[in-house]
């Protein structure tokens, strides 16, 4: 059965198009039948034709505007905040399968609301992201719980919201966590986390979806040669930068801790989302949000200007300090990490270390008292809490 999906011109269900109707198009079906005629050659086939049958479909999918759709309403949501995606965009549902094993088709899945076809961030994902900050500690079996690390993280996020956050204890935080999220013994928590959905009014007449590529260098037969292997581009779809998402909650005042009001929780949750991001590949910039709309084209121009500046810096050969956004909450006073001297450039040691699985780069100027060689292991010590202008990091040989 084939059908012309382009007849669904007003507010089409993009999820239905992406997962079902794409494979009912005559041009695509014809190409797939040709490729799959020999089952032994049905994988990793490349399109030889200059005209890609998937091209028209995806161009139309990427032309869908937010204004083509109606707002997903939810009268039960009391607390609401609109945050905007930033460059490079938002990737959700990457674990879903979507692959015709053919060039031109997206190779990674995507999550759409079943009814409307709009991209949404499931409430369960929002809840899991927020709960993870309350459970930063792990036991020997890697079971998560609320301990000292969790308390440090929550205190960081509460700074500027609640002046008395330093009075909080781990026992109190664990109780608050159970009130908010619930547990196996007591069931659901007191607060409700709804899907985060596109804010149609705020987004307006803008395209919602676009494409992007992963370019892994993988040599499965000889992994040691991976850095020298030509990349194999993997296409996927994403939510574009500049799309407003309304994060929705129904929050309560804590019955045990009066300072933990619904207003405090809402401010805390928004700050966590804006710091850690949501969805997949947040460690490389996807899924980040801002509370102020930013023009994606203006940001693109800024990136060009920044790249020119970076090239100027590269002339010195000395890399800048690099601390991923998700690592900053854990760069607290007296925290220590194990690092390695990766390079020595001019008067600087380049130190590489990990914070919660995220690589950080710190350049340390040589001194008479600090003599290191490439490959040396060092202790990275946070003298004070991280600030943009002064990371306050010291290095000691191990």
How would you summarize this macromolecular structure in one to three sentences?
By secondary structure, the protein is an alpha+beta fold.
Count up the domains. Answer: 2
Residues in helices, as a percent range: 10-25%
End-to-end distance:
68 Å
Work out the helix count: 9
The SS-based structural class is alpha+beta
**SSE string, helices as H and strands as E:** HHHEHEEHHEEEEHEEEHEHEEEEE
Strand content: 15-25%
What is the total tally of β strands?
A: 16
Shape: globular
Largest sheet: 5 strands, antiparallel
Any idea what the radius of gyration is?
A: 24 Å
Low-confidence stretches: 39-44, 302-316
Global mean pLDDT:
82
Oligomer: single chain
Give me the secondary-structure topology.
Blueprint: H1 14-19, H2 26-35, H3 53-62, E1 79-85, H4 123-134, E2 137-138, E3 144-145, H5 148-158, H6 170-181, E4 182-183, E5 187-188, E6 192-193, E7 197-198, H7 200-203, E8 209-214, E9 234-239, E10 244-250, H8 262-276, E11 289-290, H9 296-314, E12 336-345, E13 348-355, E14 358-365, E15 377-382, E16 393-397
Antiparallel strand pairs: 1-10, 1-11, 2-3, 4-5, 6-10, 7-10, 8-9, 12-13, 12-15, 13-14, 15-16
Helix pairs in contact: 4-8
């Amino acid at each position: 059965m084939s059908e012309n999906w382009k007849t669904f011109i007003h507010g089409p269900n993009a999820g239905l198009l992406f997962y079902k109707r794409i494979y009912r198009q005559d041009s695509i079906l014809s190409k797939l039948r040709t490729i799959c005629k020999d089952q032994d050659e049905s994988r990793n086939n490349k399109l030889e034709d200059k005209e890609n049958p998937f091209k028209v479909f995806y161009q139309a999918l990427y032309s869908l505007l937010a204004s083509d759709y109606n707002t997903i309403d939810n009268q039960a949501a009391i607390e609401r905040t609109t945050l905007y995606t930033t460059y490079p965009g938002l990737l959700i549902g990457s674990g879903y399968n979507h692959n015709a094993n053919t060039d031109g088709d997206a190779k990674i899945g995507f999550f759409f609301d079943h009814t409307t076809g709009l991209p949404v961030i499931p409430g369960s994902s929002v809840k899991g992201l927020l709960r993870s900050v309350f459970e930063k500690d792990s036991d020997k079996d890697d079971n998560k719980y609320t301990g000292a690390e969790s308390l440090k993280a929550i205190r960081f996020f509460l700074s500027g919201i609640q002046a008395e956050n330093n009075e909080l204890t781990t026992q109190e935080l664990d109780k608050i966590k159970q009130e908010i999220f619930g547990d196996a013994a007591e069931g659901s928590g007191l607060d409700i986390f709804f899907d985060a959905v596109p804010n149609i009014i705020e987004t307006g007449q803008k395209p919602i979806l676009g494409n992007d590529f992963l370019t892994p260098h993988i040599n499965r037969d000889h992994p040691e040669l991976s850095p020298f292997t030509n990349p194999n581009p993997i296409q996927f779809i994403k939510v574009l930068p500049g799309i407003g998402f309304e994060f929705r909650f129904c929050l309560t005042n804590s019955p045990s801790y009066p300072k933990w009001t619904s207003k405090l929780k809402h401010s805390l949750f928004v700050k966590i989302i804006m710091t850690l991001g949501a969805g997949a590949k947040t460690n490389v910039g996807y899924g980040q949000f801002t509370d102020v709309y930013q023009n994606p084209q203006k940001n693109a121009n800024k990136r060009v200007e920044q790249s020119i500046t970076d090239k100027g810096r590269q002339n010195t050969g000395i890399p800048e300090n690099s601390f991923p956004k998700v690592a900053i909450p854990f760069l607290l006073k007296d925290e220590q990490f194990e690092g390695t001297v990766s390079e020595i450039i001019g008067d600087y040691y380049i130190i590489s270390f990990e914070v919660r699985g995220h690589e950080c780069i710190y350049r340390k100027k040589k001194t008479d008292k600090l003599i290191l060689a490439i490959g040396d292991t060092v202790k990275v010590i946070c003298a004070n809490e991280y600030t943009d202008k002064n990371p306050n990091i010291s290095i000691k040989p191990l």
